[in-house]
Amino acid sequence: MMLRTNLILGLVALALAAPALADPAPGHVTGIGGVFIKARDPKALAAWYRDVLGLPLQAWGGAALRYDAPGHPPAAAWSAFAASSSYFAPSTSAVMIDYAVDDLDALGARLHDKGVEFLTRSDDASGRFAWILDPEGNKVELWEPKRAPTP
Hints:
Layout: H1 2-17, H2 42-53, E1 97-100, H3 104-113, E2 120-124, E3 127-133, E4 139-145
Parallel strand pairs: 1-4
Antiparallel strand pairs: 2-3, 3-4
């Protein structure tokens, strides 16, 4: 948990403080261009993400998630976990996706209405978190970033 907090806080600080990469030479990763998930029933899984989490699916079957959406964090975290980590449990998937959300309580109410309950919740210095399982058994992290205090 502390590792995640440090990663997210560090990433946000880097994104805000260092607008350019240290090495201006071409040939490096600039961000996440897409997330692709194998599924036993891809259409049903996509419909679940649309109907339950509100992912804005497009005609081509996926969703375009924008970095410049209001309230969205300025960076996405990437981190490798040890194979022995239990952080993704109860999922046995090797991947877990963290989705930034605008209102965790409102999403939690919508999830409850759809029969999906949080596995657990946690708050820390970077915001509020909750975890669920999708119909394929993938653990999904939901993150409401900490908001700047209003004056």
